[in-house]
Amino acid sequence: MTQFVVKPGVKNLKHDGEKLITTHCCYCGMQCGMHIRVNKKSGKVVGVEPRYDWPVTMGKMCPKGVTAYQTVDHPERIKKPLIKKNGEFVESSWEEALDLIEKNYKKLQAEHGKNALSVFGGVSMTNEKCYLVGKYARVALGTRYVDYNGRFCMSSAAGGFMKTLGIDRGSTLPWPELEHTDCFFMAGTNTAECHPTTIQWLWRARDKGAKMIVADPRETPTARIADVHLDLKAGTDSALANGMLHLLIREGYVDETYVNERCNNYAGLKEAVKLFTPEYTSELTGVAAEKIIKAAHIYGQSPRSVVMFARGVEQQNKGVDNVALYTSMALLRGQIGKFASGVATFTGQGNGQGGREHGQKADALPGYRKIDNPEHVKYVAGVWGIKPEEMPEAGVSAYEMFDEIQNGNIRSMHVICSNPAVSAPNNHYIWDSFKKLDFMVVSDFFLSETAEFADVVLPTTTWAEDEGTTTNLEGRVIRIRKVREPLGESKTDWEIMQLIAERMGKGKFFPYKNVPEIYEEFRLASKGGKADYYGITYDRIEKEDGVFWPCPDEDHPGTPTMFRESFGTPDGKANLPAVLWQEPGEVPTEDYPHTLTTGRVVFHYLSGTQTRRTQFLMEKCPEPYVEMHPELASQYAFMDGDYVYLETRRGNMKVKAKITKAIRKDHVFIPYHWGKELSVNKLTNPSLDPTSRMPEFKVCAVKLRKA
Amino acid sequence: MRKVMYLEFERCIGCRACQAACRECGGHDAKERNYVEYVDFFENRQTYPMLCMQCKDPACARVCPANAIQITEEGVVLSAMEEKCIGCRNCTFGCPFGIPKFDFEENKMYKCDMCYDRTQHEIAPMCASVCPSDAIRFIDHDEMMDLRRRRTQMNLIEGKKPSENNKWDYVPEFFGVYSD
Fold this sequence. Notes:
The complex is a heterodimer of chains A (about 700) and B (about 180).
Chain A: E1 18-24, E2 33-39, E3 45-50, H1 63-67, E4 82-85, E5 88-91, H2 94-112, E6 117-121, H3 127-140, E7 146-148, H4 155-165, E8 183-187, H5 191-194, H6 199-207, E9 211-215, H7 221-224, E10 228-230, H8 237-250, H9 256-262, E11 263-264, H10 266-273, H11 278-285, H12 289-301, E12 305-309, H13 311-314, H14 319-332, E13 342-345, H15 352-355, E14 364-365, E15 369-370, H16 374-384, H17 398-406, E16 412-416, H18 420-423, H19 427-436, E17 439-444, E18 456-459, E19 468-471, E20 476-480, H20 493-503, H21 515-526, H22 538-543, E21 547-548, E22 574-575, E23 594-599, H23 615-620, E24 625-628, H24 630-635, E25 643-647, E26 652-659, E27 667-671, E28 685-688, E29 695-696, E30 700-706
Parallel strand pairs in A: 6-7, 6-16, 8-9, 8-12, 9-10, 11-22, 12-13, 16-17, 17-18, 23-27, 24-26
Antiparallel strand pairs in A: 1-2, 2-3, 4-5, 4-18, 14-15, 19-20, 20-21, 23-30, 24-27, 25-26, 25-30, 28-29
Chain B: E1 3-7, H1 17-24, E2 35-38, E3 47-50, H2 59-62, E4 69-71, E5 77-80, H3 90-94, E6 101-103, E7 108-110, H4 116-119, H5 126-130, E8 136-140, H6 141-153
Antiparallel strand pairs in B: 1-8, 2-3, 4-5, 6-7
């Protein structure tokens, strides 16, 4: 298999004594193509070279991507297992660490039953590993409690798409088509900072006259140049979307033929949105009625449009409704399943798409199967070689696992590829839960804030030390290549799960010698499911620049554009929602008069475990800050750079003020990439969406004073 | 060299990938030589990149008393030669664009050399290669001239911040694709 993939005529700079290995970035769902520079003699990773011929990103990278390689040979890497003895971590051998895990796991399960153990996974891993997390929890540990950090990231989008379209694939169209779109309706996505390499497509479309409508409480770099910036209050997306739908119907922009042929419940939707006149919508959202009307005209008249959204609309206690409503905008216009138009969510984590399809979720099994469906259980049990009745029932969502810890049901947790001590809402509750655990294992390659709570830390490899596949935000399955040998004694996550499985007496279910063997089993496990990867092979990915799922057999070309003929629902028709207005979990009151919203900055990724250890990124953005409008700042006499004390019903923090007019006057914004005293998630609200169980990171009521 | 650097300020999204990438270039000692600045963060998030113009008759080289700043035959203005640079910092004051940087520890200037190790083989410099918004591009001279003409036709809204609440007036209507 080729290590360096390049098309004829594309020039790359090759330094003497170095080789280039083609792979993708480890960070967000864009999965930008890159070549990693490796010193031939030492085998060390020394730099990065753009992959000009990767069709999704064309060699472009954001600062995280450029510096991603620096976490591989990083001095802070954990290279040996760590065991906590008298409150201090002590280096140990694998033997000793595994002995301890075996002893404790067996003891806890003997005393409290199988479900005393739990697994908290993550989706910044390859499909092979994500797939194995679900199997590891259910087969090796035999517990029902498995869930993953996608609950904080993608689950509302998944829920909304499942409900409306029947299949959850992040984007219904391939990214390079965006260039030909006439109008982008973008809600709650700070694309320029969170998915910067998408911008090239948007700007190219704009060069040709495409219009942009951006809904965001902050004037982000994309909102700044939008034709209409709908500066809505955080947590009012369902009202805005209903308002837009109202106008699309009122102004006759509905593609009636498409809706009649391909959608259910149009009458119900019509009835539900009747109330949302521009005036009423304006009252709820805080957006001027004229702007909403203007946006509706632009969107309604565009021949080809894409509705795009991200965490801004999803991380709410009505995230699923928001997604369903925004998706319906595309449905009413008859856009889904056509060229350069459709609906897309920006996947936050590297493998947020693939990682959520294959059974890391409490209620899901590989191939987007459901654990409450006996047919599905039977199939997957067959692939795994267990009896269907041995399959544990559905567990609970990520945040609810901490409730189970508090209730004493979960006694031990194995955290793999995640850092909930920073990324989960209501941090104090999370930290307290970790302390309540009898035994905690963390697999990570840096000592994250979560790892500090652990009894045993197992050193894993970075993305560059293992191979596999990921699925990018389009739904394109791509290849991650192994760039160097594992550092020190670190082991890949799949080897770790395998070792623990052996200790638990389940070694025969995990007989893998290498990653392709896992992939073969995984392909089979996904076969026939909604997310069918069966026809995708490593060879095809290399030859075809990635393959889009669903791809049921090797002759199948893959599916770049979804829903051309019909939707994934049982009757093949999309389900239009009818949703009433519902307030966010917390609204400003006299005591807590302002709204706090959180998000990313371009320099950091998720909980910052990796990016906070990268020199360039830390130089550019060393600490969190609170962004606020000068009008709000003047009410408290805050100057730019002053320390501000913020308090919500759950916690408080002190950060420096950054004053700008590019945010609503009644909102403040804090990025969430820092831990401990700098973690804004001490303040955020764990109000959960009823379907997706996603917490409402984006809205809570806050009070301010001078620090 | 037929290719030129082309900057389109208003496309900039302020991600600073160009700066991270600049550090990655072979002879750059992990120090960036380009700039990304906010126009005025109080007002909005518009940023712009700035890099060496590779002047035909560069002020930095002209004011150098030691003749340390060399120009390649392709016209690339290089960093001061280590053995010649006397650390006087004249170049940093002379440059009208404020490009040359000064390393006080090493007592020498350093500046953008357009990634000479790449561009001499007609491979795009690192900053232009990675720029996610195409604010920095490495393109053919003809393409550049074409783009310049097009820019005057398409007076995009980008970069012109409308004042509070009248974004309305600034919606560009000249594309003629839609009307009210």
